[in-house]
Amino acid sequence: MTDKIYRFSDDAPERSFQRMRKGMFWAGVVMIALGVAALAVPWVTSLVVSIFIGWLLAIAGSASMIGSMALRGTGLIGWQALAGLASFVAGLLLLIYPTQGLVALTALVALVLLLTGAAQGAFAFWMRPLPGWIWGLLSALVSIVLGIVILASLPEASAIVLGIFVGIDFLSTGLALVLIARSVA
């Protein structure tokens, strides 16, 4: 066990950044490739997201229902089984009707973009003494603006808009990571 205590100090961002620079660069390259792919086929991107989330919910719901058996005799089994059943049914509905579930998923992605933008903004301000921090801030602003635009266009936001905005977000995040990684020697 270590006794290290991590504190934010004036030199912490620079030391931490040097350790993560290479990984940041390659993560950025992957994000750029994913962004280009999402923009090339936004309808497919939206359907893939819908089906993937459907599978995740169905599997998580099944696991939760099975896990609820461990709560026999506690009075909680019914609640846990009900929660698992709700996740399972939501997942099945997304798998059976993936296009109809896209409005809910579009709203969810908008919220994720808002939260991602806030986290990116906090990271940008944390590394502010270093060159290139502005790229992180710009990426944060792109994520936040995309989230707001999606929420403002519901329910009319089509599945293609979701795919396009996810592609733009991946692309801006990837570019920011590459530019930040290359900005500090």
Automatic annotation (TrEMBL):
GO terms for cellular component: plasma membrane. It holds the Pfam family DUF308. It comes from the Bacteria. Keywords: Membrane, Transmembrane, Transmembrane helix. The chain crosses the membrane at residues 23-41, 47-69, 76-97, 103-126, 133-154, 160-181. This is DUF308 domain-containing protein. The lineage of its organism: Bacteria, Pseudomonadati, Pseudomonadota, Alphaproteobacteria, Rhodobacterales.
